TrEMBL record:
InterPro entries: DUF3429 (IPR021836). Keywords: Membrane, Transmembrane, Transmembrane helix. It comes from Tepidimonas taiwanensis. The chain crosses the membrane at residues 21-41, 47-71, 83-102. Pfam families: DUF3429. This is DUF3429 domain-containing protein. PANTHER family: TRANSMEMBRANE PROTEIN 69 (PTHR15887). Signal peptide: none annotated.
Length: 160
């Protein structure tokens, strides 16, 4: 059963309060960063933009850590595939942050948006299923699109 099938089958699965608070609360720095990029200029905009770029990279890396944890479990199936997949988001995040710092935040934000969306597609389509709680795919979908939207908005407001 793939992650998307689990998402469809357990559409109404109750989400633990801690997962909801921590997950959706993790969108606050994205929203605050995007607002800060829109509402400031000069050094303040650059500083907020760099912080948003770093936070986005950290979150993308975290997504790979989830798969590392699944692969590191005793008796996990397809351990090698899980561990290989798990490093992709960290490598992409490092690339996106470096690109953003060297060429400008707009390019970095765009690379992070692409990484978040691509990882979501790959996670649903190609990654081996893990020990996923029924509510997890729905939360991941919401958080991915929330984070990607905020980064896209910051990219629009950033200097070229």
């Amino acid at each position: 059963m793939t992650m998307s099938e689990r998402d469809d089958t357990h559409h109404e699965a109750p989400m633990p309060t801690a997962a909801a608070w921590l997950g959706y609360g993790g969108l606050l720095p994205f929203a605050g960063g995007a607002a800060g990029v829109w509402l400031t200029a000069g050094f303040a905009q650059s500083a907020i933009g760099a912080a948003l770029l770093c936070y986005g990279g950290a979150i993308l890396s975290f997504l790979g850590g989830i798969h590392w944890g699944w692969g590191a479990q005793a008796g996990a199936d397809r351990v090698g595939a899980r561990l290989v997949w798990s490093v992709v988001p960290s490598l992409w995040a490092a690339f996106a942050m470096t690109l953003g710092l060297l060429t400008g935040p707009r390019v970095g934000y765009a690379a992070l948006v692409a990484g978040l969306l691509l990882w979501r597609v790959l996670e649903v389509a190609a990654c081996p299923p893990g020990p996923v709680a029924p509510w997890y795919p729905r939360l991941r979908r919401h958080l991915t699109f929330g984070a990607a939207s905020c980064l896209a908005l910051a990219a629009v407001a950033s200097p070229a």
